[in-house]
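Record type: ASSEMBLY
Status: queued
Input:
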Amino acid sequence: MLSPHDETTATPRTANAMRVKIVGAGVAGLTCAHAFARRGAEVTIVERKAGSGQGCSWYAGGMLAPWCERESAEPIIAELGFESLDYWREAVPDVPKEGSLVLAQPRDLPDLRRFSRRTEGYEWIDDTRIAALEPDLEGRFDQGLFFPTEAHLEPRKALAALTRKLVDEHHVTIRYEAEGFDGDDAADVVVDCRGLAARDQLEDLRGVKGEMLVLYSTEIALKRPVRMLHPRIPVYIVPRGDGHFMIGATSIENDERGRVTGRSMLELLSAVYALHPAFGEAEIVEIGADVRPAFPDNLPRLRRRGNTIYVNGLYRHGFLAAPALARRAAELAFDGTHFPEVMDEDHREW
Amino acid sequence: MDAMTEKTTHADTVEFYGARVNSRLLLGTAQYPSPAILAEAIRASGTEIVTVSLRRESGVAKSGQSFWQIIRDLGVKVLPNTAGCKTVKEAITTAEMARELFGTPWVKLEVIGEDDTLQPDVFGLVEAARTLVRDGFQVFPYTTEDLVVAEKLISAGCEVLMPWGAPIGSGRGLNNPYGLRSMRAHFPGIPLVVDAGVGVPSHAAAAMEMGYDAVLLNTAVAKAGDPVRMARAFARAIEAGREALIADPMEVRDMAAPSTPVMGRAVLGQ
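Status: finished
Output:
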């Protein structure tokens, strides 16, 4: 069966193609560009920064983990996630499907049991299996949860690859360092993917700050993302290859961009140090913070006003939800399809 | 009129610093899956007072406004807290900011002494309470069941005490029922709220049966699989416990006390 994102289902562009302007070249904007271009639209992306994916996509973990997210998110996130996982594996290179590992310190085992009750798609594994999957964690944990069908990617590389594909294969025009609403609106449809910047139009959007860091160590290797549960300081480690590890992420109810606090770094570092002491000697390559756009229910939305479609509220689920939302946005524009799971109102009569 | 009769002849409300509320469940606002679920849980429970933390959310430019606005829009009383504060100075600064942001003299005072258990630093607590009361705050101190500390908080000007049931987030329930019972007996006229450590509704009901005026909790609802349903369950348990207290429960006896005569039955130990 073909997935909805398979290139062979694409429609060639014709002379009277739909002209689509996409505002924002983060994960939402780029996946929307792809979805519209594949339907035969003539797509232009405008981005105020100097390159693709330099907003909060830049700081994403890149875990394609619908089952793990199911523990704390609504079922719709997992549904969008399964579709998006397939999309990424087709659309860009280097999306290893090594699964995810969820672990806890012995005193936090109640959190591991709780996690297991809230989701599916895993197996309980013992110390032998943990050591077989991740040899460097041998002897450190007695039990854990293994989610074999999940995958991960490196967000910056993935968005760079997607950008090249859009330009080379789909003839998408990208204008960087450009303002989205510059009066030059010959577009039939505008897709607003500005994230939190769209708060000027979407008043119920709020920011949720996330902080992360990247460590470099040759003393430890991991094949897959590892989540360490803790009642107050849950942390995840995503291997980025070449000895790099992305550690994330805090979730703080404010919209303060860029400022990383000592307490957050202390918490993330002590959690990762508890996973393996080698991280104590690791080099800090990068620290970063940005603000995720979220609606009050922390679920993503498509909204249509006139000829503008807003794709927003992806919260912690940018890479997990964007491709599935992008496909829906294109179907909304081309076919008028209504998607109640991600739309507040029915716009079919418009 | 004794206390028990008074309780039954007036509407059963509880008063904190002159503010009367019907609901004896106070809810924290952290850790919910989303602000929308938080709002629904509060509505479902009938809670009239919610706590909100500021220390970490405020950043350098009070940048937590969106979330705080959601809290204000809930239409319930806000009890800002100093969660995460470890020094007297930090707690006082946070309380001052809270007063400015929410326009209330109320503050739930937490001065954390130990990271692992989040046990209150009772020395810092008394000191901070004294300063805040002098500055016009109405302080709800998060404390232990220690009676001497409680005395000192009252002489510092606190008119409400909030002893822990168990460490924050542990869900262990009432770890020291004897201590909590003595505290109730020692301070019959002070509103007492069990704060922290409550895991399931039966813990909350037990606190109410013990004569506590209210229960404050967060994790038990926020981290439940269905927070809205759990909020409702706690509201009912608290009502049940309160009703039971007013109804004057039977005494516990060492021997079974049959309610029907046993005459005519075979002789015991034949």
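Annotation: Residues 1-9 of chain B have pLDDT under 50 and may be disordered.
Annotation: The interface with chain A takes residues 33-37, 39, 56-61, 63-67, 70, 169, 219, 223, 225 of chain B (CB under 8 Å).
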